[in-house]
Amino acid sequence: MSDSKCEVVREMIPDHGAGRLGADESALVEAHMAGCDECRLELELVGLVLASTAAVPDGLAGRVDAAWKGRGTPGHRRWWGLSAAAVAALALGINMTSTGTDPVEILVPGYAYEVEEGDLWLSDDGVIAGAATLDGLSDEALAQLLEELTVGASGGAA
Amino acid sequence: MEELPEKQKLSVALRIEEGLSFKEIGEIIGSSEGAARVNYFHGIRRLRELME
């Protein structure tokens, strides 16, 4: 089953998977999932993503925190309140080195904390990510692309 | 997740793990709310393709 309700439910799947929804909303999502393989599959995917973050080593979050504090906090930088664990996970995946019990050099990606409005997103895969194109699209174009991504994906496997 | 381009990876991670709104994610990655939303669903779709 795949209908317009998928669009609504898909917005809620990450919060449902992480247990952040209230009882009423969770019941709504569950009721939809009972008849929608697409959304159920997406929930499984969310579960896998959440499970993968459990591999962040104990203490790493604190070390990232310390590394961050050690960099100093020039006035022009902004921090969006990401948890240290989230930054640790990002650092693990992107740009971090560790040498066992030796002091750990943690290279927190700059964009995790110092993106300023109007800054360019410097990325080797920026074009693939759509950085060079998505940000220049109108809301209408983005909505159309989003529809292709969600409705199109549902329709393909319905 | 490692297979995803950075913006998609960040959008997926921040939406799922941190529960941030697409507006908040857009502010972090330097994109509009709409672009963050598209990056997220792009990432999800890509992960699904990789799983299949």
Descriptive account of the structure:
- The complex is a heterodimer of chains A (158) and B (52).
- With 158 residues, chain A is an all-alpha fold.
- Chain A has 3 domains: 1-55, no CATH class; 57-116, no CATH class; 120-158.
- Helix content of chain A is 56%, strand content 0%.
- Chain A has helices at residues 5-17, 23-33, 37-52, 60-70, 84-94, 126-129, 131-134, 139-157.
- In chain A, helix 1 (5-17) crosses helix 2, helix 1 (5-17) runs parallel beside helix 3 and helix 4 crosses helix 5.
- The radius of gyration of chain A is 19 Å and the shape is flat.
- The model of chain A is unreliable at 72-81 and 94-131 (pLDDT under 50).
- Chain B is mainly α and 52 residues long.
- Chain B has a single domain (6-51), classed as Orthogonal Bundle (Arc Repressor Mutant, subunit A).
- In chain B, helix 1 (6-16) runs antiparallel to helix 2 and helix 2 (22-29) crosses helix 3.
- The longest helix of chain B has 19 residues, at 33-51.
